[in-house]
Design goal:
- It is a single chain.
- By secondary structure, the protein is mainly beta.
- The protein contains 1 helix and 12 strands, in the order E-E-E-E-E-E-H-E-E-E-E-E-E.
- A 6-stranded mixed beta sheet has the order 11-8-7-1-4-12, with no helix packed on it. The chain has a 4-stranded antiparallel beta sheet with strand order 5-6-10-9, with helices on one face. Strands 2-3 form a two-stranded antiparallel ribbon.
- The longest helix has 10 residues.
């Protein structure tokens, strides 16, 4: 999963005429990098749900996953991004597109829960959009340069 701080975007992405795709790649400011974070594959859940008044509905985006262990890099990632406005690209090797969740002006916010007991040492992460907006985007552009701070 690749996360992008909305403040790191050079310009707002442009949606295609279909309203569910992006024209061109996401461009980051000079020196900015996206964050690649490992997600335990069978824990990844991506979705959206409708929300709002009868004539003003939109979609709330969510991506949930588990990240194993208690590494320093993961702790730093959570600490540095808990109050950031984020977008997420969920990479699908078998599809012709990836899924882009969140948007400038309607970003994802991060929620985290750590479990460390006799059964497991893992972290549950949930990213959810703040408001109802457009449907999850089909993203076919180039993936941004990443830093691996999420481990």
């Amino acid at each position: 999963i690749i996360l992008i701080r909305t403040d790191d975007l050079l310009s707002k992405p442009v949606k295609g005429a279909d309203g569910v795709s992006v024209i061109g790649p996401l461009v980051l400011k000079a020196g900015a990098k996206a964050i690649e974070i490992y997600a335990t594959p069978n824990t990844i859940k991506v979705g959206d749900k409708t929300s709002g008044e009868a004539d003003k509905k939109g979609f709330i985006h969510t991506v949930e996953f588990d990240h194993p262990g208690s590494s320093l890099q993961y702790s730093q990632f959570i600490n540095d991004n808990v109050n950031e406005n984020l977008m997420a690209i969920v990479v699908y090797p078998d599809l012709a597109f990836n899924k882009l969740l969140g948007w400038p002006g309607n970003p994802l916010q991060l929620n985290h829960e750590q479990k460390d007991d006799e059964k497991e040492d893992s972290n549950s992460v949930k990213l959810e959009s703040l408001f109802a907006g457009d449907k999850i985007i089909h993203y076919t552009g180039a993936l941004p340069s990443v830093e691996g701070s999420g481990a």
